Amino acid sequence: MDMISKLFLWVLYSSIAAGILSLIIILIKLIFNDRIGPRFHHALWLLVLIRLLAPVVPESPLSILNLLPAKIQNVIDSKKTAVLDASAFSAEGYDHDISGEVNSYRDHGRNYYENDYVLSFEEYSKDQGKETSAGYALRIASLTWFAGFLSMALFALTAMFKFKGKAIYFRRLAEPEIVSLLEDCLKKLEIKSGIPIYTDESFKSPCISGIIRPRIYLPEGICSKISGKQLMHILLHELVHYKRRDSVYNLLGTIAVMVHWFNPVVWFAAKRMKLLREIASDAYVLEILGEEEIMPYGMTMVNLSRMFFNEHSQLSLISFFETKNQIKRRIHMIKAFKKGSYKISAAAVICCILIGSITLTNAVSSSSITDSGIMTAEKSPDMLIDKAPADEAEFLIDAPLKSYNDINKMAKVAGFKFKVPDFVPSDYNPSAFHIIKAYEGTNAVKIFFDKESGKRLSFAFHASTKDLKGFFKESAKNEYMGNENIQSEINSNEEPLGYGSLKGSILTITAIMADDESSWETTKKYLLWQDEDIFYGIEYIRDIKTPKGDINKRTDLSQEDAMKIAESVKYLPHIKNVDYVPITPEISTEIGQLSIYDKEDLEKAKTLLGFPIKFPLTIPKDIKASYASVGISPDSDIKGNKINYELVMIYKLPNDSLTFVQREGSKIYDHAREKGYFELSIGKADESNKIKTQSLLISGKDVLRYELTYEDKICETDYIWKENGFYCTVSFSPEAENQEEILKSLISEKVINSDTGQ
């Protein structure tokens, strides 16, 4: 959406809020009637003016706008709909869905997921059509509003310049008696600034104009037709307007009418405020003169109304008279005036504060999320889809690096909404989707794009809720400074970058490594930027300078291509030019395995394995599982198309790790139990291939133990036992402690419930 549409949505929301406030004020007036003083009544309508013109107001749970239906808030709320982008309603086609809840998209099958509700492609397309009509209507309404605003602004400017052109011919009143009377009035009101009086036949009523350099204007010859006291009444009234800053309110009211010209409530409010300013000024004058001047002041108004009544007052001038009806109301107020009625009480102030707290605030956003960022180029329509927080993933194994073959699954569990490239250079395709537990405990998304050539080139796209500079620097430190035998020096440099709507920076990290014999250097370049509240980065250069001086390029994008990729990012449902379908089957005979991180993965694993499994997340000494996956079992007959699967779980021990494997077949166990030895390759008549086994009884299970050696040193100790329908293997390194305790725990572990996964 363009800027005009955004402004119109803000204006529309402000008009609705001001309309609600106006109804509240009218209701208060009906209830309390004449018990509300003119100053307090004007202050209430001033709240309407603030609501109409304030560009930003805070959100509050006390806001009366919280009572609006959620759908209306989502459509009109300026803090939400202002984030719509021009592409939302462009004739080029739809790039978004304004439901605000789409979590993921899969090209195959054409399913769009909204939490637990699945929306078919036909339904989605139908909804898109509805939004297109709504977008077209909004654009027409926005342009109509803007045309009306420009017309009124042009009219106001024309009138102002016309008045200024005529003002040079106005005659200044300098008669001593008039000047002396003016000075007395200024003293009464404690006004120190000098305010001149001008006269001209074009004025049909006394008025005052000007905020910085105010002037009082009188109709030509009025001084000869009225008494000195009546002139004093007129001057006091006009000076009170200056004292009360009514010229400022009048200007703001004019602007409000120009901006909200389509709203009749705004016209009513502006007209009402004008009348109240006159009534309040009358009350102020009578407060100074005293109740004994009520009748003379009232007669001044009656006499002047007979001489100079004007149905069409000058724009931006605060005229003494407006309409016949207003004059009647003012005279009625003057007759009912009592000393002290102009003052505003503490109760009235408290009332204004209370009303303001519920009307000068916006409804609390449903997502309660912050706005904006650097590379926003205005907020995008996708925010309405993906601004809401991602579903909180409940991980069984919260691995520091999680690898997925399906971007939709990765997006679902990432913990935040992010955009992905809709442009990549030719021959590049997505190859891996990772979630990395970055610094400060936050998740970072990493997508690899490989080039379909023999050069083995790739680039990486990153997204995170934290600034990625720290993550990249920390990663370089961990990568290059972990070996005590290698000396490392890491340097970084960041330079600002501007490219079209993209505002970001280029981060260069150089690592120089050396041992006793040689040295080599790695240079990485990242394009960094922020879009809304998410930080993005593209590693587009990765050069390794070998000890021979050769440059080995692992990543080789041009900076221009990197910036094009950055400018193309969109939310998943809107991607058109990059194929993010599952990269490979979750598991296959060639490559891939099903990693298990959450309950959904575990359910898939159980179905794939086809036998009951043990899935201990913790073993003795509070050692947690750090990895779990399903892969192809080595006893599979791939040529015969008989595929068996195995479950592999890895636990990090204090000094090393252990591996827990479960397979359906018991061929290896049965063979070793019968022969008394374990064969590395069953069927080979080679004595070196045979490893003697030891039979143990542990927790009621017949367990076979054997050791794998290399150069006469034990490198691994394995334990195998048979369960009901499957068998288990546990592999310990020689340094592993508490082997027997851990083994007993795994043997005693019950199989997980097929329904609950527990």
TrEMBL record:
The lineage of its organism: Bacteria, Bacillati, Bacillota, Clostridia, Lutisporales. CDD domains: M56_BlaR1_MecR1_like. Residues 11-334 form the Peptidase M56 domain. The chain crosses the membrane at residues 7-32, 136-161, 248-270, 340-360. InterPro entries: Beta-lactam_resp_regulator, Peptidase_M56. This is M56 family metallopeptidase. The keyword Transmembrane helix applies. It comes from Lutispora saccharofermentans. Keywords: Membrane, Transmembrane, Transmembrane helix. It comes from the Bacteria.
